[in-house]
Amino acid sequence: MSLDSPRTASRPERLTVHEARLRLEHERAARLTQLRALDEAGPDAEEQVMSAQKDTIGRVLKEIDAAFDRVTDGSYGVCRGCERPIPVERLEILPYTRFCVPCQRHA
Ligand SMILES: [Zn+2]
Phi and psi dihedrals of 80, rounded to 5? Predict the structure, then answer.
């Protein structure tokens, strides 16, 4: 997985819109790949496990779509709880998150 993002010594405070979109695209592609893999798992796969996994992936895909909307309207990367910027390190791991770590714990 290479995202073509050059490593710079000084890290920016916020992801650029371009970076945010790249990361979200990447997450979405990964989830769609997982869904396809589940569909191709065939008759050996356990129905219940599969549908639970599909539900989870479906929820994440909705979160990703919502994050794309926030990139568009400019509210991306701002915590819904405390309204402070979500640290870039967190967005790199979880680009579709709506909360910073402390607020996520309370959510
Ligand atoms: Zn917060």
Answer: -75, -20
Query: Residue holding tokens 């989870």?
Result: 56
Residue 1, both tokens: 């997985």
Q: Which CATH class is domain 17-106?
A: mainly alpha
Nearest CA among 79, 84, 86, 95 for reference residue 18: 95
Tens of pLDDT, residues 41-98: 876 778 888 889 999 999 999 999 999 999 999 999 999 999 999 999 999 999 999 9
Q: Supply the DSSP symbol for 95.
A: T
**CA 101 to ligand 1 centroid distance, Å:** 7
User: Ion ligand 1 — residues with CB under 5 Å?
Assistant: 79, 81-82, 100, 103
- Between CA 40 and CA 90 the distance in angstroms is 32
